[in-house]
Structure formats: structure tokens, C-alpha cells
Amino acid sequence: MFTPNAFQKQLFEQIFGATTGKSKITVDLMAVLGCSRASLYRKRTGSTPLTADELIKLANHFSLSIDALRTHSEENSHVVVCTTLPPIENYADIDFYLDNTKRNLELAISQPTAQLYFTAKEVPLYRYMDMPGLSAFRYYLWIMENMRKNERFDPKDIPQELIDKGRELTNLSEEIKSTEFWVPSAFDNLIGQIKYVADSSRMSNRVKDQLKEELDIVLENLVQNVKSEQTKKGKPYQMILCHYLTLSDGALVEIGPNHSEVMFSYGSINYMKSSNPKIINAFRRGLRYHKLEGQTLGALDGDVIDEFAKSVRLKINEL
Length: 319
Description:
Number of helices: 11
Shape: globular
Radius of gyration: 22 Å
Order of helices and strands: HHHHEHEHHEHHEEEEHEH
Largest sheet: 8 strands, mixed
Number of strands: 8
Oligomer: single chain
Number of domains: 2
């Protein structure tokens, strides 16, 4: 049987086998995991289990797909495994993120029965990636977060290729049957980020006004989706408005009858992706709970939809 210990040993064998200089790798591993040589030995031999956070650190640092190491899933489904994206440090990393996300969407869209479930504590990225100002603002924040700088924001400074790829992602997102779980405060963080950058004199009034106009368009498009119960490209769409969400921002993608994946964020742009059945079933249970607790909106709920939109629009106007 494939045990957690065996999985751990295989993981470290992969790390040492893919690199040269065992002494250097040992020192590297100690730094990544923040442990002593003795502690590292216990982790390598499987006597000390790796935490989920340690798995993430190893996957990021050594560019590993931990899911790819997993075999005999029916025997080791209790082992938490994941694939992670590298942290964003420059525009090339954003480009990689966009390409990777596009491949994920294209894989799902290729199956006619595919379904996307998204928990939106914040406005889903694909909802505004077709807006040149808002997408540029998101890329700007990612870069500034990792560079720890406070440069001024100007949409013209963002590579046009990234703007174009963001637009492609939004278009692709409209080609899949979707259910989104929203909270009334989902727009608050994005609005707050725009306000903070503007108030700290890192954005001109002209750019701020552009972002306000684009936010209004994003909101209006969402309202149209909810009231028509379909995406712009005619795919079934449903919003479930919840008072709160216990699940982090993330998505369950049902690609086919025997293929589902969960993607959930663990910090900024980074997210984990797993096909582990235990994680998928746990996410499904959370979604079912929130569907029961929340309010499913449709064409007959115009008053609730309009009240939701009115509260968001007031916040946008205050920018």
C-alpha cells in the first residue's frame, strides 16, 4: 500500500534526483523548510510528516508538481497533494499565470458537461480581466506587492500582451456553465484598493475615473448575467447570494464524470490545484451547505438583485 511515509520519501527522492550537489541541496532544503539537519533527516525518512505549508514551500521552490508524484489514488486519497504556481515577481510570472489559467479553462470547456463553481468573497478575476484599466491595476498590485515598492499606477505602463490575454480569459469564462457564490461585500476589497492608491497620490484622477467607469460596467454585466440566468455566450449561469462564506476564494471545476479539480487561493495570486477526491468532496460539501443557506437568484428576483447592485454602486460612486 502507498503510505504517507512512502509518498514523502518519493518526494525527497525526486528533489535530490533532479538536482546536483547533495550537500548544497541539503542546505537549501533546511533553509526552505526552516529546520535543522536532524529535523530534515526525519522528514526525508518519513518519520516526521510534512505539513501542507511545507508541501507548498517545496513545490514552489523546486517547481514541482506534487500531484504528478501521486499514484494509486484509491489507496492514498488521505494524502493531501497539490500543484502550485510560482509566486509572482515580475510580468513574466503573470504571463505564465494567465497561460496556465487559460489551459485550465480550455480543458474544461472542451467537455460539453463541464461546470464551474466559484466562491466569490472578492470579485472573480475573470469578471474584470476584459477591462483594460482594471486588469492593468490588478497586474500593478501583484508586482508592487512582491517588489515592496510604491510606484505610481498608469495603465499604459502594463504590457499590452497581458491586457490582451486577460481579455481572452474573460471571453473563455463565458463559455462554461457557471454557478457563483457571492457575498454582498465582494466588491469592497477592489474598491478599497483603488481608493487607497488614489488617496496616496499614486493614481491620477483621470485614471481613477476610468476605473470607476469600468467597475460600473463589470457590475452591470453581472446583473445582466443574474437576471438572464446565462452568460454573454448563452451558457447557463446562476448566482447564489450568501451572508458569509466559510470557503476561501476558489473554484470547483467538474470537467467530466470522472474528472474534477479544486483550485483555491492560499495567498495573493497563488493557488493550489488538486484532484484529490478527499479535498474535492470536502469542497462540494461546503458548496452544498452554502446553497442551502444562501439565496439563489434568477429572473424573478429583480428586487434583490437591484438592491445588491444599488449598494455596490453607492460604494463605487464614493471613490
